## 1
Amino acid sequence: MREKKLWLIITFHTTTAAMAMESLCTEKGLPGRLIPVPREITAGCGMSWRAPVENKKELIEAAEQAGIATDGAYEIVI
């Protein structure tokens, strides 16, 4: 069984925004990956960005600067 860890989960209203975040992070070399929204969180599109919590400020700022609308940012153990 995998060890549970504290992660940053960024949720989105739309799948388009989630995919835009993936493209942005790939382009800028930012950490993380798309995952289904964990059941502990409710979000509009069902997709979220999972990344190390240490990168929260950097990821939120990058999304804002790129005009990507986020639904929320959570720190949860998964």
## 2
Amino acid sequence: MNYFYFNASALVKRYTQETGSRNINFLFTNVPLNRMTCLILGIVEIYWVCVRKKNDGRISSEDFTQSRINLNYEVVDSKSAFNTISVTDSLVLNSITLIESHSLKQYRCISFTICFRLK
């Protein structure tokens, strides 16, 4: 059985149209939400991207509102089966070696650390 971890860059494709949105939508259509995971911190980043796109005119206010509703329903709502992972101190500290060895951004390192734990 496959499980899917989404970083914010991937998951935002569900809520705004970007290259790759079709692939993410395919997963949401064909995979149960309880087999999907993201960082709780990534949700904030998704909101930020949606607000930025609304503010600079890439999406309409109506599309922004619908994106927010869909994100809340599918991911944020406590009744959703979608899994979120809190960012703990140990998770952050365990990602430091990835920053040092691969020069990755902090959130990307945390995401990789989670993926290694999920295997």
## 3
Amino acid sequence: MDISYELYKVFYCVASTLSFSEASRQLFISQSAVSQSVKTLEQKLGQQLFIRSTKKVKLTAEGELLFRHIEPAIHMIRNGEAQLTQKNSSGGLLRIGASDTICRYFLVPYLNRFHKEFPDAHIRVMNQTSLGCIDLLESGQVDFVVVNAPNSRLKKNVYTSQVLREFQDVFVANRTHFPLENQELSLGDLTEYPLLMLEQNSTTSEFLHQIFEKQNLHLSPEVELNSNDLLIDLADIGLGIASVPDFMLFNAPKELFVLKLKDKLPKRQLVLVHNEQLPASDAAENFMHYFSLDEDAFSSPMFHAP
């Protein structure tokens, strides 16, 4: 089917913004030209791609299907153009996907090291949950991601994963509000207390719900947040018992303690994930090389600078 790239580019802009006027602004063409391009593409494909109204634009089911295929293609083309452009410079573009927690407690020392060694490189870190990061990788918006595993969206037959280190999920509480330091609790015992957890669209929530379900326990958190740091803050003021990764505790408030569990939770992993079938930028290759050199850096009980 002979359809020009320009038509798909216009479709992508309208689909990603759900606005003909915004697409017109981004593409520096008139709104009528945008409308005509979309109409031409719909005629060539024999499908209606958008539902138009005076107030909003919505993708049809066919439009959503096309968008899922066009989005990664557009990002791949732009990434290829960027890599060719940056071949003439000493910097390049480093595109990473990671959660706020992983960025703060693991990646910052490596980003510092990379910035010192490649000061002309541009660094773009996109923050999402570990589940959302796989979507960034799939759509071609990043070169690689650093995420928690197990991860329900990680397709082993498509992506290559490198284990960076293991970590343990722990439950922490304020010793004044929850005098439980000398007790050993079961998971069933924990359900009797107000629990603070990450929200459900996270690998941590998935993991913990599965662990509790295996013991036929219903996990119903008192509070669900999207920040591990905020979970620690709320646990510190005695709002409840928080579930956090153990590597966050090296600088935790002194009033917090780790609860002793009769059933120790399985360890999880921090993994670097990328698609070997797609060429990575020189900057990404240089950054990922740190982890093949620093194998001993991950034996420490907490994340530290390389």
